[in-house]
Amino acid sequence: MSPARRPAAGRGPRRRALGMTGAAALLVAMCALSLAVGSRWIPPTDVAHALVSPVTDDIGRIVVGMRVPRTVAALVVGVGLGVAGAVIQALTRNPLGDPGLLGVNAGASVAVAVGVVLFGTTTTLQDTGFAAVGALLVTVAVFAIGASGRVDPVRLTLAGAATAAVLTGVMTGLTLWSPRGFDRLRSWNAGTLVERGWEVIAPTAPVVVAGAVLAWSIGRSLNALGMGDDLAVALGARVGRTRALSVLAVTLLAGGATALAGPLGFIGLMVPHAARRLVGPDQRGILAVSALLGPLVVLGSDIVGRVALFPSEVPVGVMCAFIGGPALIAVARRMRTGTS
Question: Which of 201, 146, 191, 202 is nearest to 297 (CA)?
Answer without folding.
Answer: 191
